[in-house]
């Protein structure tokens, strides 16, 4: 596989990124009902992309991965950034691309003087995040799927 290049996402590339997100999610074997919900809720945020809070990994004109972070926020545990999206094309899983995009997000969090990056993860992605330094905090209910619990993790930057 050719090494992907990281770059900003133009408005005419949003549809390709959203298709990548759904293809990545479907890789884990979710049924049609779950994927219909995911199609409504898992979308690249146009404002985040325009502000440079999202980048994609490109192989030529094709997206191989995407990462999106939140604006910095403060809570009772300090300043933080949320990891809003991190999706990799199924054929790129295991190539180090996920780590490269994750490191981009960590660099952005550090540049924003965040103490941590918060991650509400898909259960299948939890081992990936744990392997690269995130710590499991607890399970949280999904906003999109009633009764579904999702792992909440954080990556401390201090």
Characterise the protein shown here.
This protein is an alpha+beta fold and about 160 residues long. It has a single domain (about 5-155), classed as Aminopeptidase. The protein has five helices and eight strands. The protein has helices at about 15-25, 30-40, 45-50, 95-110, 125-130; strands at about 5, 55-60, 60-70, 75, 80-90, 115-120, 135-140, 150-155. Strands 1, 2, 3, 4, 5, 6, 7 and 8 form an eight-stranded mixed β-sheet that branches. It starts with a strand and ends with a strand.
List the helices and strands and how they pair.
Blueprint: E1 5-7, H1 14-26, H2 32-41, H3 46-50, E2 54-59, E3 62-69, E4 73-75, E5 78-88, H4 97-111, E6 116-120, H5 126-131, E7 135-141, E8 149-156
Parallel strand pairs: 5-6
Antiparallel strand pairs: 1-2, 2-3, 3-5, 4-5, 6-8, 7-8
Largest sheet: 8 strands, mixed
CATH superfamily membership, which one? Gcn5-related N-acetyltransferase (GNAT)
**Alpha-beta content class:** alpha+beta
Measured as a percent range, the helix fraction is 25-40%
- Overall 3D shape: globular
Radius of gyration from the alpha-carbon trace, in angstroms? 15 Å
State the name of the first-level CATH class: Alpha Beta
Number of strands: 8
Order of helices and strands: EHHHEEEEHEHEE
The number of helical runs is 5
| Contiguous runs where pLDDT drops below 50 for at least 5 residues | none
Percent in strands: 25-35%
**CATH architecture assignment name:** 3-Layer(aba) Sandwich
Mean pLDDT: 95
In whole angstroms, the N-to-C terminal distance is: 35 Å
CATH topology: Aminopeptidase
User: In the residues, how many domains can be counted?
Assistant: 1
